[in-house]
Design brief:
Elements: H1 2-26, H2 33-51, H3 57-83, H4 89-115
Length: about 120
């Protein structure tokens, strides 16, 4: 059940990232860094989705760890956009809180999956 919540939440986050990037472009504040935010923010959900079709428990964990790395990267880009006044504090706060929630869900899912692995596979 947690994985379904993770898939749904990450997909909604990707849509919000997409919409935010479009808003930045419409304000003519866009630059090549928009693509970085778009790639990392949407990659989280893509890796979570891919994890659900993993070939093994270790592969599943690996995909979730990649999603977690993308989540951290997305936090970086959001902070950069806030610090350069490309997005408002209000926009930043909304997106970063979603990103933090995704990160917590990913960490919990990874820890649960790892606890279910036989010792030699960790």
């Amino acid at each position: 059940m947690k994985e379904n919540l993770l898939v749904d939440y990450s997909k909604a986050f990707a849509v919000d990232i997409f919409n935010l990037c479009n808003q930045i472009r419409e304000r003519k504040q866009g630059n090549i860094l928009i693509n970085q935010l778009l790639k990392s923010g949407t990659s989280i959900g893509a890796n979570i989705h891919e994890a659900n079709y993993a070939s093994s428990k270790a592969d599943f964990i690996n995909k979730l760890q990649i999603a977690l790395k993308e989540c951290y990267e997305t936090e970086y880009w959001l902070e950069l956009f806030k610090n350069t006044d490309t997005i408002s504090v209000h926009e930043f706060n909304g997106m970063i809180s979603q990103c933090f929630k995704l990160r917590r869900l990913l960490i919990a899912s990874i820890n649960t999956a790892k606890s279910n692995l036989p010792q030699q596979q960790e």
